[in-house]
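dumping this here so i dont lose it again. seq + smiles for flavin-adenine dinucleotide
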Amino acid sequence: MTPDQSRLVETIRQRFGDKAVTTDPHDIAPWTTDWRGRFHGAAPAILSPASTDQAAAIVALAAQSRIALVPQGGNTSMVGGATPPADGSALILSLRRMNRIRALSAPDMLAVAEAGVILADLHAAALEQGRRFPLTLGARGSATIGGLVSTNAGGTQVLRFGTMRSLVAGVEAVLPDGSIHDGLSALRKDNRGYDLNQLLIGAEGTLGVVTAASLKLVPAVAARAVAWVGLESPVAALALLRAMEARTRTIESFEIIPGDSLALVLGHIPDTRAPLADPHRWHVLIEAVIGDLGEEPPAKLLERLLADALESGLVQDAVIAASEAQAEAFWRLRDSLSEAERSAGPAVQHDISVPVADMPRFMIDAASAAEQRFPGTHATAFGHLGDGNVHFHVRAPAGADPNRWYATDAPEITRFVHDLVVAAGGSISAEHGIGQMKRAELERLSPPARMAALRAIKSALDPDGIFNPGKLVTLAPARTAP
Ligand SMILES: Cc1cc2nc3c(=O)[nH]c(=O)nc-3n(C[C@H](O)[C@H](O)[C@H](O)COP(=O)(O)OP(=O)(O)OC[C@H]3O[C@@H](n4cnc5c(N)ncnc54)[C@H](O)[C@@H]3O)c2cc1C
């Protein structure tokens, strides 16, 4: 710990007590490596404010000595976004103690949640009042509101409700000089110039620390139906979605899963079984939801729509979950894809989007181009087809040495895949953000005017670069390979 860091830590301990400071290396260790185990950082201390005022005081003190801070929530980032630098030059600023739901108003359809509230806890609290926060993802048991706001998270209900950006009504944050931005008021109309709330959403902790957010709620689920469908291709899958959307507005999730990824889940995740009797090249998981029991029951609706699709040959087989337990079992297969891929050996992941109509062809063409260009690899894509966003994974050839492969082949594969994405008019980060993993790629593939604007915003709000150094955008251009 540098003398300045040590002075800061002691001051915070004296002012806010022992709970506000962690310096035991054993307690710090789990928070210095990312979820995928790809990035290893170091931090001499974790600072944990219990309130917005404490967060503001900590940031002001750090700013005086130009001590770098890495905001952190559940540490489920897929891009090394919350992992501190390896040289120990930054302290982790954890929001996990700020985990109060300050207000939840069923009539106003709004909740005000502190940054450290875990997504699953918000879901439970909303449900108690007959409401729902309509964003969910596999990491819901750990991911926090602050992290979700700061990554503009997506998930499996974007089709109907949009990403975090469309669900956040207001943001409270501490800016890099220690001042508090109170933008929680949830005004429906507010045209006072630049929107600081919107700047903070998706800023990945580089413009300050989010301490709370006002969040839009919708009516709780009155009934839902979950179907598992086997079909021939992503083209058929998108045609199915379009055919369904023409006849109902209740489709909330439409996730595509290749047969080989399902096989990985069945092989690596205990107590899982295939929903359909025969193997299929592609699968989709569909969820239809109603918020009012006066509407057609979603199971009946899906049955009708899928029967038509079977008859027309668009799908090969389908099953509708007969119980909540079975619906959850279908979702578990989908939510376990990343974990199963992680257990299967070295792989390089790409969270990409292209225009929705182009995605089915892109998935097939890009996978075959990558496999041809890098012999022995296996490329596969799964995820949010209806949003034009898939997770495009390329697995290493059998027997490849992980360290060597990650150091040499993986960056080359990533550049190859990203070039295909950019040529297709797409984005190299659809929902996970840039973090440290994609910073050099963002620099390489962004128009200079865009990077200059990002840098100008960063330097205006954080001129000393103390917030989340080395992530998303830095004051000087990135030079290293990804
Ligand atoms: C199994 C699994 C499935 C996932 N599925 C999805 C998915 O479908 N869609 C999706 O979008 N993401 C997904 N993710 C990624 C991840 O869950 C999201 O990025 C989530 O938003 C991160 O929340 P967190 O609290 O863990 O943030 P962290 O990982 O702690 O931090 C993420 C970023 O936000 C910053 N940050 C965290 N808290 C704050 C704060 N209070 N103020 C300012 N900055 C902050 C960090 O500095 C970092 O840059 C998945 C992750 C896992 C492990």
